[in-house]
Amino acid sequence: MNAIKRNIPNIITLANLTCGLFAIIFAFQGNLTTASLCIFAGAFFDFFDGLAARLLKVSGELGKQLDSMADMVTFGVAPGFILFHFIFYLSNDIIFRHSMNDSQLFFPASLALLIPIFSAVRLANFNIDTRQTTSFIGLPTPALAIFVAAMPHIDFNQFPMFVDLQFLTLISIILPLLLVVEMPLFSLKFSKEESLSSRLNIFRIILILSAVILFFVFQFAAIPFIVILYLILSLLNNIL
Prior knowledge:
There is one protein chain. With 240 residues, the protein is mainly α. The chain is built from 10 helices and 2 strands. The chain has a two-stranded antiparallel ribbon.
C-alpha cells in the first residue's frame, strides 16, 4: 500500500507525459485542435501531481526528475510542433512530409523549434536553481504551452494577428527567450504568512479575476492575453 501511495503522484506525472505524446502525434496529423486539448489535459495533470504529492506527503528526487521530463515533452516539444505545423499550414493544407522541401514557410516554421530547445534549458535550470521555490525566474513552461495551445481555437476573424506570419515569427522568438530571461515572476500560490491585502496577493487576485472575465468573454483567445497580463503584473511587482 505504501508503494502505491508513494507512486500516485508519479502516475499522474506519467499521465501528463502521455498527453504530451498524443499532442505530438495529433500535431503531425495536422489535427492541431485535438493536439492543443492534449496540452490542456497535460497542464491539468501537471497541477495535480504536485498537489497529490503535498496531500499524500510523499516526495522524492525521482518525482522531481520525472516531472521535468514530462514537462519537457508536454510543454516543450509538443507546443513546439503545434506552432511549427500551425505556421507551416498557414498558406496551404498539404501534408508536411510531401511539401517541406518546397515550402517557403519551412524556415519561419522552424523557429518554433526554439520552444523545446529553450524549454530544456529552462527546466534543467529550474531543478538546480534554489531561487525558484516560491516564485519563478523566467516564464514557466506550462504558461508558454497553453499560450500556443490556445491558438488553434481562436476566432481568426476576431483576432487576425494570430494568422499573420510576421506576428507568429515574432512570438516564435520572443516566447522561448522569455523562458530563460532573468526576470522574476510571481507564483499563484497564496502563503498563510502573507496578508491577503499585500501587494503581491492583490496582483494575484487581479490576475485571477481578469483571467476569469477574459476567458468568459473571449474563450480560448483570452489565454495569450492572460499570459501577457501575468508578465506585466510581475514586472510591476518587481518595479514597486
